[in-house]
Amino acid sequence: MTATSDRPALAQRSTSAGDAASTSEARVDVESLSTLLLGRWADLRASARATAGEEAFQRIEGLSMREHRERVLEQMRLLVGKGQVWRAFPEHLGGANDPGGNLAGFEELVAADPSLQIKAGVQWGLFSAAILHLGTPEQQDRLLPGAMDLSVPGAFAMTEIGHGSDVASIATTATYDPETEEFVIHTPFRGAWKDYLGNAGVHGVAAVVFAQLITKNVNHGVHAFYVPIRDTNGERDELGRLPFLPGVGGEDDGQKGGLNGIDNGRLHFDHVRVPRTDLLARYGSVAPDGTYSSPIESPGRRFFTMLGSLVQGRVSLDGAAVTAAKLGLAIAVRYANERRQFTGATPTEEVVLLDYGTHKRRLIVPVAEAYAAHFAHDRLLDLFHSVFSGEEDTPEQREDLETTAAALKATSTRFALDVLQETREACGGAGFLTTNRITSLRADLDVYATFEGDNTVLLQLVAKRLLADYGKQFKGITPGQMARVVVERAGDMALHRTPLKRAAQALADVGDPRRAAGHLRDPETQRALLTDRVETMVADVAQALRPAQKADPETATNLFNAHQVELVEAARAHAELLRWEAFTQALETVEDAGTREVLTTLRDLFGLSLVERHLAWYLLNGRLSAQRARTVTSYLDRLVDRLRPHAQDLVDAWGYGPEHLRATIATGIEKERQDEAREYYRRLRASGDEPRSEKSLRKASKGGPQAR
Amino acid sequence: MTATSDRPALAQRSTSAGDAASTSEARVDVESLSTLLLGRWADLRASARATAGEEAFQRIEGLSMREHRERVLEQMRLLVGKGQVWRAFPEHLGGANDPGGNLAGFEELVAADPSLQIKAGVQWGLFSAAILHLGTPEQQDRLLPGAMDLSVPGAFAMTEIGHGSDVASIATTATYDPETEEFVIHTPFRGAWKDYLGNAGVHGVAAVVFAQLITKNVNHGVHAFYVPIRDTNGERDELGRLPFLPGVGGEDDGQKGGLNGIDNGRLHFDHVRVPRTDLLARYGSVAPDGTYSSPIESPGRRFFTMLGSLVQGRVSLDGAAVTAAKLGLAIAVRYANERRQFTGATPTEEVVLLDYGTHKRRLIVPVAEAYAAHFAHDRLLDLFHSVFSGEEDTPEQREDLETTAAALKATSTRFALDVLQETREACGGAGFLTTNRITSLRADLDVYATFEGDNTVLLQLVAKRLLADYGKQFKGITPGQMARVVVERAGDMALHRTPLKRAAQALADVGDPRRAAGHLRDPETQRALLTDRVETMVADVAQALRPAQKADPETATNLFNAHQVELVEAARAHAELLRWEAFTQALETVEDAGTREVLTTLRDLFGLSLVERHLAWYLLNGRLSAQRARTVTSYLDRLVDRLRPHAQDLVDAWGYGPEHLRATIATGIEKERQDEAREYYRRLRASGDEPRSEKSLRKASKGGPQAR
């Protein structure tokens, strides 16, 4: 965080007098906002953030892949000593049974090095968490200590080369052999190799392997097995790898587009035998004679329950992505507040980048979105904690958690990539230098868009839930009633899509654009616009998909496919609404009046930016008259202007200091250079030695005495 | 390029029967299209492409920064032997005076390694080209041979830490000393260090340095000087660097977000003296007594003439960006045509990714845009060649060239980044592995968006030209006539913005969405929509900026700033129109009927995608009725469906083979794996040993005898 004394004074920050509305006079209380943003697990988050800023945990740029991997493993050992990474585990094993607090801290690791965050996520959030959530108490007691204290680095072997998103179709088999009371883990073909597994390339000595459980010639679907993969008594090779155990093989995934501190790799199994007791048996077990049993009767529900227990990965990626976006914005806003280019109103004074119309917009709108994403993530953490701490672990809560995590993870990881690209470009050539951090962050964050659930697939999950909820409204409804609904809906469409409603809006706004703008600032209007869009899109798709229920599979598939784009778009709209609601809800918790005023304007900016993004939809569906729609952009610009003087405060309040930003251009060096240059020119002018410019001489000779 | 036999048969490619319109029956003649796309300098382009595919020129991933830099230098030495890089230079120096052919070949280097393309660009396109374009014939003869044959690796020292886009404000001074007949090159403060210079970090021994030329205490503005920077008789240090000459200093820029095969660095000068004769003197020279003279009287025009001679950088970046986008698309389309995930209509058959609604759209729409960008670049090369070969070197042509280069460079570099991100994600986890190429390409291309002119700044240049052209219409117009124009414009706005015109459209389309769709496929409609948008936006901004002419500087600056976003948007619209026109023009040159039919559909898709992107604008400005606007997306989806069977042909026709794509997933390996998996399951079913699934058993037991 920039010390208050270093931050340019308010007055200095904006050279454009422009719209001196109330918000620019309000002040953000950076310290109290910063505390508020630490959220429910403030102490844990603050201490994890401090850890992330320690030199030992900071990423060193330019290391070779091997050095980077070893450094990250070393950092994980240091983390074990700090205890934070154990918080989600049971108390009797040294944990704190505090899943929310655990994630709050875990997410902050991204500021140290995304490789550390993700490799720690593999060890404690996937490998150990699978033992915790899928294992029996006996298995937890037996297997967790080594996983937790990192004496057993482990891989989470779910994804296969051939099947990523479609986990149910993985091809690895675990066939029970009652003779020896063992499972035989086997990879039947190349596409069934486990791939992209952190810890598999070098460090892992065990893995939780997902495979089709087959016993008595019946396939009971995907289950997880604890499988040792490397011989801990063997000799390490020149790359530090222990030899694979018999029947186990693999490859290093090698260099990646980012996250090169993680040793991703592939694994395959040639009839590898593991004891019957190493099937992680909470949701399904096999008796010595081969009889399968499960507390969950339906194979489908069993599968989703097992997978659902791993939702924390998505929750934490949402938080980490928001943090990464904040880091990029904090760097770029600081630089844009100092960097000057081209003269404006006065010939000797160059304009600060953040005073340019395009620059203001490209940075301040994402600041608003980052706040929305932050507050939405806070709500997601609450939901996650209530389920996983057992406070309120109901099927409905779990379902909400999964849907919300999918919606927010897909939205925030996309947002982080867009922001990191925009901020890189906003910093020009300097943004491309590794010393200014942004490119490395972006490279690392890239894969967040497709791992722990490909974003497109996740958004479809969300859309399906929205459709299901929509359908529930009509459960038990008679055909006659349904017909009425359809007619009403058609009537609604007719109303919105004909000029009637638009005409009414237009009449209401006649001659007064301010009325239209004021209308847009009303939170109820914003809520109505955002909510209506989700509901209408869902209803439209539901209606379009209705024939699929009675169609043959091919027609149904084609129909679904033809509406896939709208489905995904509806899910995005849902995520946007969630964020807006979270932002709005958070405003109530802000006590300082000035801060609340600025944040309210920021929330309005976020809301309006969504409306602007989807303006065509609002127009096509008659939700906004052309007249109102035309005010959206100009009003949004006014909000950006009002917020511009607060931009630095808003990013400072995120609480990331130089030890987190680690960008040379965000250290004040640009201002020093500008000051030095201006001082040089000032002295030169004062000395009387300043050369005259040919241009001004020509003007003078042409223009005669009256020219200056 | 995939051999025809390797390509999946047409019938296989689309599993969605859907809209079997004419285009899917037409066939692309890949070979003849490929030849057509080689363009005007087909032989040169083909031979440069072959060079780019040679092993010696291919990028080796995972090299250290130092190794990568040395490899690229070595590759440049090999290029000298091939002669291609000299084509733009005068014949008496070994060149061919063929600027267009030179660039056509040069751009292909990006397929070998973007670092090679850019470092070659620094040496021959900037350092040597500055000597060629800014030097006198004597200076060319004296300085070019060493620059051309790489015995003098050189830096192009224009940008300073403090001034990138605003070249006129650079602070380095070159003060003439008549006593010794030398210029004194000096860096007055830290912000005036030259920065981001290729060849400055390690290899450069000379530089073309841009500085404010001061003689007789008059500043004549920015001029270029030939300045030796390293002592070629000195001893190399452990990094292979020769010592700096006295007074010269510098730093290595170190690691970057990409392009790490280039040794970017900083330079500064402490009263370094160069002979009077090493001012590159074509556009300005200093007599021994210090008297300045120039063939161009106006300092402003002189400055822009000097800078204008360097436009080829932008032209070549446009071409290279389009090539990079093609490489990403070729990889992702091939993979999407083979990769399967989730079952669809039949339970044993998984769906090919490219048959999914979202996937089709995310890849095929950019394929259309890549074609548009390709043809637009061809036109840009023609324009460039006509000016720089002297065929038609007029001020108007130069102005057109500069505007077009700025518009297209800004658009295609943005496009390349978006495409490389989209294709990376479309390939899932595999896309993140370096072995699949896309992430490295994207990292390298990142800086294309801000170097050789920041895209936002370039688009403003374009917008200013559009405004100037708009203003010219009214040159010499009387106030009365002007008033009439304003009234007419207001009338036009009233017509378009009220429901009158919309109502007329709506009436015309009543009950027949096909009529609305057919209307959109008419090229004249597309042209009218795209042209009208540019013209209207320009006219709107011009009108909004009118008060600036008589305002004080501060008000004028603020007004301009308030409309900066629209200015940039108008420039983008102009670039989009250029591309659409180039695509349309190119259709006439396609002789094969099937190919022409498919490409026409592709052009329609491109046109419609632009209309969809800006749908809100068309609605707000009354250019499309809601009814027509609603057909845009559904019609666009139909075009995507029609083109889907041709996707592989369309990317194959770009002519990049495995030696250029160098992506494991684009080698057919995915299909092999899928075939192996399917064969395994086929045999398993045939063997009768296939385990039954618990799910189907449960269904059977529940459903009784009638269930299957």
Automatic annotation (TrEMBL), chains A, B:
Limits of the Acyl-CoA oxidase C-alpha1 domain: 308-467
Cofactor(s) it depends on: FAD
Q: Where is the composition biased (Polar residues)?
A: 12-25
Do the record's keywords include Oxidoreductase? Answer: yes
Q: Where is the Acyl-CoA dehydrogenase/oxidase N-terminal domain?
A: 44-147
Q: Where is the composition biased (Basic and acidic residues)?
A: 683-697
Q: Which residues form the Acyl-CoA oxidase/dehydrogenase middle domain?
A: 155-272
Domain named Acyl-CoA oxidase C-terminal: which ranges? Answer: 523-666
Mind telling me which Pfam families this protein's record contains?
Answer: ACOX (PF01756), ACOX_C_alpha1 (PF22924), Acyl-CoA_dh_M (PF02770), Acyl-CoA_dh_N (PF02771)
Q: Where is this region: Disordered?
A: 1-25, 683-708
Which InterPro entries does its entry note? ACOX_C_alpha1, Acyl-CoA_Oxase/DH_mid-dom, Acyl-CoA_Oxase/DH_mid-dom_sf, Acyl-CoA_oxidase, Acyl-CoA_oxidase_C, AcylCo_DH-like_C, AcylCoA_DH/ox_N, AcylCoA_DH/ox_N_sf
| Keyword presence, Oxidoreductase | yes
Family as reported in the entry's similarity comment: Belongs to the acyl-CoA oxidase family.
Alphabetized UniProt keyword annotations: FAD, Flavoprotein, Oxidoreductase
This protein is called what?
A: Acyl-CoA dehydrogenase
